[in-house]
Amino acid sequence: MRNIFTEHPKSVGESYFEHLYHAFSFSLLLLTLSAKAFIHAILPFLYITTVSDKIKSLSEDMQRRRNKGDKN
């Protein structure tokens, strides 16, 4: 039987709660990055590469997790 709560987490090699933790932590990270981007828009001398650097790192992290799921 198909379980909509675990289908996607299993596809990336995680349990429901592991996926919940990672998705929630990404959400909080993106929220803080949004605030930093807003501050940078007003004060361009602050957070010059912080947001773009972290988004690149986050993308690489997510790709590694996706690839890990492909191997399972």
Structure characterization notes:
This protein is mostly helical and 72 residues long. The chain has one domain (7-71). The protein has three helices and no strands. It has helices at residues 7-11, 16-42, 50-71. The protein starts with 6 loop residues before the first helix and ends with a helix. The mean pLDDT is 91.
Strand-helix topology:
Elements: H1 7-11, H2 16-42, H3 50-71
Helix pairs in contact: 2-3
Briefly summarize what is shown:
This protein has 72 residues and is mainly alpha-helical.
- Please give the largest β-sheet: none
Succession of helices and strands: HHH
Distance between the termini: 20 Å
> If you compute it from the alpha carbons, what radius of gyration comes out, rounded to the nearest whole angstrom?
16 Å
Q: What's the overall geometry?
A: elongated
How many separate domains?
A: 1
Strand content: under 5%
* Overall average residue pLDDT: 91
